[in-house]
Amino acid sequence: MIFNDVEFKACPRCGAEPKVGDVRERSLTKPNVMSVTCPACGMSNSVAWGSMDLPPFRQAVAMLAYSWNSR
What we know:
Elements: E1 2-3, E2 6-7, E3 19-23, E4 32-37, E5 44-49, H1 57-69
Antiparallel strand pairs: 1-2, 3-4, 4-5
């Protein structure tokens, strides 16, 4: 699956295609949260982004893909 020009591989546990979700808080104090989840087995991972001292969106997508794909 491709999300924002970054590839997310199939779930390492069951092989299903993952879903990426992005929750934007629109706040200076609360971080936005992006997650990748397997709809079949429920395996997931998430990363906070965009608030103070957190990575910007593109960097967060790359970090999330790296952590998901390296499992």
